[in-house]
């Protein structure tokens, strides 16, 4: 194991966008379509539109922070460097709910799909297979994982396009051209403002991924330009896909009543394309979970690497890289071990954490931009007030509101996790009297650069 603390710069704009979209998993909009449509009473497109607006404001803030602090660590790093190290630690601890548990949820969902298709094979076998293959690819390095991502993402996007085309053909065949244009997916007869915003809080789960791009900053060529562009592109491309797909799907099935909301999109796929397309759709869902798990595990390991390098996690375990592959092997293995909890949990329980940690991180990154603006103004540096004041204020307001729309169980579990973090912080800082440990990292360092992909 090498004692190096620098990652290798290999990623260009295309790779970052693909990693973000893979983490986001565009096909997940269909995986939870029935749930969102049920909550919004058939106004799922509105829920995704509200979530998109919230995520765009926050994506701008992530871009500003990535340009100001081009190192790994994402929200954890931005908050500790602009507000306070202790606050940054708690944000990093909160976002671990998202980063550490999301791969487990992804693998669990993928295993459930495979178990439905091959009931003779236990779910646990599929979970372990997902973990082993994904961890092996991530240990070898992002260049190999990126090539796998490109092929698998292309297949996933092809299925999405086919799904949309078949939906449009189905609507045309049953209602004519005028049926393609309707406001019902944005405001069904039973839709309410509270229902749409509650749906947006759930729909925001689909957007988790644009922020993960920032954890690859130290592996990106020209990060101060590339990372902000990639963040915004991932949010806009993903959000555009979600709004369009939810719109056409809602046209095929108006309203929010389903026999089983958790498998509604699969039933719709069979309705519009028959059993052959249903099988193709199921295959795409399984592959989507693999590509998403690949990116999610890589991102979680980079966050733990940044925290380990600073010393807030054990440095000898998390703060060093493999001498052969220049990847955070220990962090990848830990994420894989956590994934084994999927053998004992269901999807509902494991996902209850995720949005809480994400919304806490989103809110605090928006706040950190405001702190950065004030400090730069005091230093005589003039910054754009729209992207450094207006946008982050709007982003913070919306993300706090969505946080309050989460169900009480998720909030309760999230607060318990934060309480554990406060105890750990008290130990690290000897009663909060000093800052958490941090390793000084040269943000302009570019020790190893290979061709951008």
Describe this structure in words.
With 453 residues, the protein is mostly helical. It has a single domain (13-428), classed as Amino acid/polyamine transporter I (Up-down Bundle), CATH 1.20.1740. 70% of the residues lie in helices and 0% in strands. It contains 17 helices and no strands. The protein has helices spanning 13-24, 28-31, 33-40, 44-68, 75-82, 85-117, 123-140, 142-175, 193-203, 223-252, 264-310, 315-318, 329-339, 347-351, 354-378, 385-404, 408-428. α1 (13-24) packs across α8, α1 packs parallel to α10 and α15 packs antiparallel against α16 (385-404). The two termini are 26 Å apart. The model is unreliable at 439-453 (pLDDT under 50).
Which helices and strands occur, and which strands form pairs?
Elements: H1 13-24, H2 28-31, H3 33-40, H4 44-68, H5 75-82, H6 85-117, H7 123-140, H8 142-175, H9 193-203, H10 223-252, H11 264-310, H12 315-318, H13 329-339, H14 347-351, H15 354-378, H16 385-404, H17 408-428
Helix pairs in contact: 1-8, 1-10, 1-11, 3-9, 4-9, 4-10, 4-15, 4-16, 5-6, 5-15, 6-7, 6-11, 6-13, 6-15, 6-17, 7-8, 7-11, 7-13, 8-10, 8-11, 11-13, 15-16
Brief summary of the model shown:
This protein is mainly alpha-helical. Helix content is 70%, strand content 0%. The radius of gyration is 21 Å and the shape is globular.
């Amino acid at each position: 194991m090498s004692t190096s603390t620098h990652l290798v710069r290999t990623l260009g704009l295309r790779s970052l966008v693909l990693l973000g979209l893979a983490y986001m998993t565009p096909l997940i909009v269909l995986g939870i379509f029935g749930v969102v449509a049920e909550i919004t009473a058939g106004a799922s497109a509105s829920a995704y539109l509200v979530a998109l607006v919230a995520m765009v404001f926050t994506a701008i803030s992530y871009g500003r922070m990535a340009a100001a602090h081009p190192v790994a660590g994402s929200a954890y790093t931005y908050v500790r460097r602009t507000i306070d190290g202790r606050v940054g630690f708690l944000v990093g601890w909160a976002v671990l709910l998202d980063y550490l548990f999301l791969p487990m949820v992804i693998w669990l969902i993928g295993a459930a799909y495979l178990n439905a298709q091959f009931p003779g094979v236990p779910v646990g076998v599929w979970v372990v297979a997902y973990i082993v293959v994904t961890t092996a690819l991530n240990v070898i390095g992002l260049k190999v994982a990126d090539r796998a991502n490109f092929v698998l993402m292309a297949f996933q996007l092809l299925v999405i396009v086919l799904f949309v085309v078949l939906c449009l053909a189905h609507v045309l065949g049953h209602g004519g051209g005028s049926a393609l244009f309707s406001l019902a997916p944005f405001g069904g007869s039973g839709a309410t403002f509270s229902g749409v915003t509650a749906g947006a809080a759930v729909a925001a789960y689909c957007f988790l991924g644009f922020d993960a791009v920032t954890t690859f900053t130290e592996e990106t060529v020209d990060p101060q330009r590339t990372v902000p562009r990639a963040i915004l592109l991932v949010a806009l491309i993903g959000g555009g896909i979600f709004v369009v797909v939810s719109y056409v799907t809602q046209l095929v099935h108006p309203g929010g009543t389903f026999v089983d909301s958790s498998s509604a999109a699969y039933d719709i796929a069979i309705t519009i394309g028959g059993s052959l397309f249903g099988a193709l759709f199921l295959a795409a869902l399984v592959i989507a979970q693999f590509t998403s798990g690949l990116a999610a595990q890589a991102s979680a390991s980079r966050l733990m690497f940044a925290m380990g390098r600073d010393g807030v996690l054990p440095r000898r375990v998390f703060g060093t890289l493999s001498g052969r592959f220049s990847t955070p092997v220990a962090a990848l293995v830990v994420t894989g071990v956590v994934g084994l909890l999927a053998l004992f949990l269901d999807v509902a329980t494991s996902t209850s954490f995720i949005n809480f940690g994400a919304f806490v991180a989103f809110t605090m990154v928006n706040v950190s931009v405001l702190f950065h603006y004030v400090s730069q103004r005091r230093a005589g540096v003039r910054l754009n007030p729209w992207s450094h004041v207006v946008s982050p204020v709007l982003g913070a307001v919306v993300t706090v509101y969505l946080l309050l729309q989460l169900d009480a169980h998720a909030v309760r579990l999230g607060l318990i996790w934060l309480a554990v973090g406060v105890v750990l912080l008290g130990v690290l800082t000897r009663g909060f009297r000093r800052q958490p440990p941090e390793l000084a990292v040269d943000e302009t360092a570019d020790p190893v650069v290979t061709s951008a992909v």
